[in-house]
Amino acid sequence: MTTVSPQARPARSEDVEAAVRTLCRAFAEYPWTRHVIAADEHERRLAEFQRLFVSRIGLEHGRVWVTPGCEAVSVWTTPESTGVEAVFTELTDRFVELAGDRWEHFERAETALAPHRPRDPVWFLGTVGVQPGRQGQGLAGAVIRAGLREADRAGVPAFLETSDERNVEIYRRFGFEVQAEVPVPDGGPLTWTMWRAPQGAHTT
Questions:
Q1: How do 191-196 and 9-10 pair as beta strands?
Q2: Alpha-carbon distance 173 to 203, whole Å?
Q3: CA within 20 to 30 Å of 131's CA: 16, 70, 142, 158, which one?
Q4: Is residue 159 part of a domain?
């Protein structure tokens, strides 16, 4: 029997809600979002965070890939994502509202990670998720490799952060290596920053 590798495609505006549903299911118990988003109405808050990130950051200023049915999603910023800081500034009040009583934890977590984030241009894998029932089918690899191919074509490194130790070995399979292990304040999760040097051109 021939195994067909999953394919990724660029996301469109009509994919936002399906992508948000996938990311919310994938991040339902993720240590980072549990730490920085209030427990009260957590699912609603998480959904709106993901919606803003996919639509206002990824689609407007970065790159978003999905599998055909949005079973997997990856959201990236790139060296060309020059409008991201302005969007974050514009949305600050909304993020404060969504974080709720965890906003100060959010700020201190970001401050702890800031020194470990790259200053030079990178492809930043901001978020990636797969529907829980579809994990282990190569879907995450499809949407991650889509971004890595573009980073490699541009000769630019890739960067990510993860607060789940199980993900570290998964990302190593894509060529990422740990740069730092960062203890997040206020009892937050240990977070790994990972870096991948540009590699030779990938084939599809």
A1: unpaired
A2: 17
A3: 158
A4: yes
Going 159 to 42 to 101 to 94, the CA torsion angle's sign is: positive
Q: CATH number, domain at 21?
A: 3.40.630.30
pLDDT at 1 over 90: no
Contacts of 40 (CB under 8 A, 6+ apart): 100, 101
Output the average pLDDT for the chain: 93
Structural contact between residues 97 and 172, judged by C-beta atoms closer than 8 angstroms: no
Name the band, by pLDDT with cuts 50, 70 and 90, for residue 141: very high
Residue 123 placed within a domain: yes
Q: How far apart are CA 10 and CA 55, in angstroms?
A: 13
- 62, 64, 60, 63: which is closest to 20 by C-alpha? 64
Q: What is the pLDDT of residues 91-115, one digit of tens each?
A: 999 999 999 999 999 999 999 999 9
Other residues' Cβ atoms within 10 Å of the Cβ of residue 71: 22
Tell me: the pLDDT tens digits for 147-181? 999 999 999 999 999 999 999 999 999 999 999 99
Residue 203 has pLDDT above 80, yes or no: no
CB atoms inside a 10 Å sphere around CB 200: 6
Residue 44 in any domain: the answer is: yes
Instruction: Tell the residue number behind the tokens 């990824």, with chain if given.
Output: 58
